[in-house]
Amino acid sequence: MFNVVLRGLWARKSRAVLTMLAVVLGVAMISGTFVLMDTVMSAYSGIFNTAYEHTDAVVTAQSPFGAIGSAKQPVPASLLYRIRALPETQKAHGYIDSHAQLTSAAGTAIARSSEEASVFGLPARELDAMNPLGLVSGTWPSGPGEIIIDQATATRYHLRVGTTVGLVARKPLERFRVTGIFRFAGATALGPTQFAAVDLAVAQRIFGKQGWFDEIDIAARPGISVSRLLTVIRGIAPPGVQVKTAAQQASTATSDVGQQFAPLRYALLAFGAIALLVGSFVIFNTLSITVAQRTRQLATLRTLGASRRQVLASVLAEGTIIGAASSLAGLAAGIGAAKGLSALLGASGIQLPAASTVLTWRTAAISLTAGIAVTLAASGAPALRAMRIAPIAAIREGTAPPPRSRLRRPAVTAAATILGAGALVPAVVLGGLPVATRLLLLAGGALVLFTGVAGASRWFIGPLAAAIEKPVEHFTRAAGELAREQTRRSPARTATTAAALTVGVALIAFVAVMAQGVRASTGISIRQQVAAGYVITPQGDVLAPDVQHALAAAGIRSASVRAGTVHAFGTNQAVTGVAPADIARSYRFEWTGGPGSTALTSLDADGVLVASDFAAAHHLKTGTLITAETTAGTILRLTVRGVYAEPKLSPLLGAMTVTTSLFDRSFTTPGDKAVLVSTGTQRPAGRAAVQAALKPFPTAQVDTLDEYITAQQAPVATLLNVFYVLLALCVVISLLGIINTLALTITERTREIGVLRALGMTRTQLRRMIRIESQITALIGAATGIAAGLFLAALTARALSAWNIGFAIPWTTLAILLAGAFAAGTLAGAGPARRAARMDPLQALSYE
C-alpha cells in the first residue's frame, strides 16, 4: 500500500505541491518566529557576556519590587571608595548609564522620535580591560564638550570625528564634539538603540546624579574567589544595593530583554497558528476532492483484497507524507521568514540587533510537530470517508451519494458548533466575568464559530452565489450562470474552499473594526481629560522639570504631570505628581468619592488622590491610609483625599496622584510625562511663544490637542499595518486552496468541458466561466468573513466595555476587503482558466 501511496502522490504532483505550500507558509511563520527570537536573544546574550568578560562582581541598586522599565536607581558614590579599599579588590569603576536624545548641532533629532541614546558616563582617566567599549577611531572623551558615538549610529547618521552633535537630557541642549567612534562589547549593530559616552563628571551633571553611580564593576585580586569578593562587598553595602556576579548580571540583562520581546513572540506565534488553521481547510478540501475522484480506484483496491484499515492508512499516510515534507520545507523557509519578519519590524520602527542565525532543536521539534499534527487532523475526515467506500463502487460510473441520514450529520454538527459559539454571547454581554476570562472565551468561541460557519455555509451557498453573480449577469450571462450552477452543484466543496478565505478576512475585519474603535475611543478619552491648549510631550523618555521652569520664565502658565511607579497592595502602580493649582486649569476631574471639588485643593504633603478602579479594588475611600514604596526605596504613608474616575484609554494620571513637591522628594530623578499649557487659544502666535520658550529643549514636542490625539493614535495605525501584513499570509494560503480546488474540479469536469466546447463555447467564454467561479467563491468567503469578523468585534467591544472601547465600522476598509477578494479570486482563477481553455475538445470528450 505504501508504494500505491507514493505512486499516487507522484501522479498528482501539482496538487501535492499546492497543498504543501499551504502548510509550508504556516510552519515557516512558526519556525521563523522562533529563529528570529532565538537569534535576537543570542545576540543580546553575547553582547552582555562580552561586556562583563573582565568583571567579577557588579553592584547596582536593587529595585524594591522589580519594576521593569522603570528609571534605573543609582547607588551612592561613597560605596565605590569603600569597595576600592577592600583587600580583595583589584579594580573597581563607577559608571553612569542613562538615556538622552541625540540631536544635530541645531537641536534637531537625528533619529526617529521613539529612539533615544543610551549614554554612558566613563571614568576616561581610569579605563582598562573592564571597559565594555572598544575605541575604533579617535580618542576618549576627557572633559566637557566631548563625546564618542557607537559605530552603527555614526554610520547610520553620517557622524564622524569632529562632528558637532547635541544632547538633551535633564538639562537644556548641550553641544558636544565627537572625539571618537566605538563599538559596544564588540557588536557592530545593536538594534534600535543608539550609544554614546561622555566623561563621568559630565554625565553626572547632565543627568542630575552628582555623587551617584548607576553601576559599579569590580575585579577581584588574583587568588580571590568570586564568592569571597561578593561576601565582603555585601558586608559593606548599604540597604537597597544588590551585588551579583558578572555572569548573573549578564543573565539578568538578557532576561529583561526577553521579557520585553515576549509579547512580540506570542503575537507572531499566534499568527503562525492562524496560518496553519487556514492551511488545514486547504488540506481537508484537497483530500476530500481526491478521495471522491479516486472512488473507483479505492473500491478496486478493496475488491483486490485491501481492508478498510489499509485504505484508511493509505489516505492518512498520504497526509503524513505531505505534512512531513511541507513541515521540513517550512522549517527551512523559517530562516528566510525570520529575515523577512526582521525587515518588517524594522520598517515599523522596531529595529533588532544583527547576529548569526540560530536554529535550535526546540524550533525544529515544535515546527515539525505542528505541521504534521495539523495535516493529520485535516486528513482524518477524508480518510474515514475513503474507508467507507464499498467494493461494489468499482463497477459504477460515478460515486453514489451517501445515505440521506449521513447528509443530516453535517447539518447537526454545524448547528451544534454555531450554537456552541452563540452560547458564549450571554457570558460576554451580560458580564460578571473578568475581562481576561471573557477574551479567552471569545478566542475559543471564534475557533468554534469558524468551524460552524464552514459547515453551515453549504446551505446558503446558492443564494449567495446568485446574489454575487447577478451584477455581472448582464455582461456574462451564459458564463456567469454556468459558474453559479457549478458552485451550487457541490455546496460543501465550495463552502470548505471559501472557509479558508473566511478565516483570514474575518480576522482582518475584526482587527480593522477594533482598531477603529480604539482610535475613536482614544480621542474621546483624551478630550474628556485635557482642557489645555497645548500638550508638550517628550520625544524620548521623560521631560526634565526645567521645561516647565522655562515656560514660567516666559510668562506661560502650565501644569506638569510627573510620572513614576510605586508598589502598593502587592502590585506595581503608576503614580503621578501634580501641582493642584496648576492642574485644575488644564485637567477635568470627574470625582466619584470624597469632597469632590475640594479634594484637589485639600491635597497636601501626605495626601493622595486615587483612581476609582484602584479604590474599588482595595476598598479605599476618603481618609483611608495607604502605604506605598517608590522605586528609590522611599516609603510613603498617604491619606486618601479624593477618588476620581479615570479613563481606561490614554489616561494622563496614574492610579495614585500626589503633589509635585512630594513626588520630587520621593524619586531620585523625577521627570514629566507631559506638560499642559493653558493658553486659552490655539492661535499660531500662542504656539510660537511656547516654542520660543522651549528653544533650549528642542526635543520637547509641542502639539495642539488635536495633534496630541493623532500622536496617541499613531501606534495603533503602525500596529494595524503590521497585523495586515501578517494576516495577508492567511489570504495567500486561502488563494492556494482556491487554485487547488479549481484545478482538481477541472480534471473532474473534463468531459463536461469537452461537451461545452462541442456545443459552441469559445475558449474566452470558458476562461471567463472559470474566473467567475473563482470570483464567486472568493466573494462568498469574504462576505461570510466580514460578517463573522463584525460579530466577533461586537462581542469583543462589549467584553471591553469597561475600557470604553466602542464598536465602529470602518466602511472604507471593508469595501477594500471586498474589492481585494474579487481581485484575489480573479488572480486565483487565472491559471486554472488557462488550463481549461487549452484542453482539446475531442480528447476531453473521450476522457473516462
UniProtKB/TrEMBL annotation:
Q: Where is the ABC3 transporter permease C-terminal domain?
A: 270-391, 725-841
Q: What Pfam family does this protein match (any one)?
A: MacB_PCD
Indicate the transmembrane segments per the record.
Answer: 16-37, 266-291, 311-338, 358-378, 411-433, 439-461, 498-518, 722-747, 776-797, 809-830
Instruction: Spell out the GO cellular component terms annotated for this protein, sorted alphabetically and separated by semicolons.
Output: plasma membrane
Its subcellular locations are:
Cell membrane
Membrane topology of this protein? Multi-pass membrane protein
Tell me which residues make up the MacB-like periplasmic core domain: 17-229, 494-691
Signal sequence region: none
Q: Which domain of life is it from?
A: Bacteria
Q: Name one GO molecular function term.
A: transmembrane transporter activity
For this protein, the record's InterPro entries field holds: ABC3_permease_C, MacB_PCD, Macrolide_Exporter_MacB
> Keyword set for this entry?
Cell membrane, Membrane, Transmembrane, Transmembrane helix
Q: Which family does it belong to?
A: Belongs to the ABC-4 integral membrane protein family.
Q: What is this protein called?
A: FtsX-like permease family protein
Q: Which organism is it from?
A: Trebonia kvetii
Origin organism lineage: Bacteria, Bacillati, Actinomycetota, Actinomycetes, Streptosporangiales
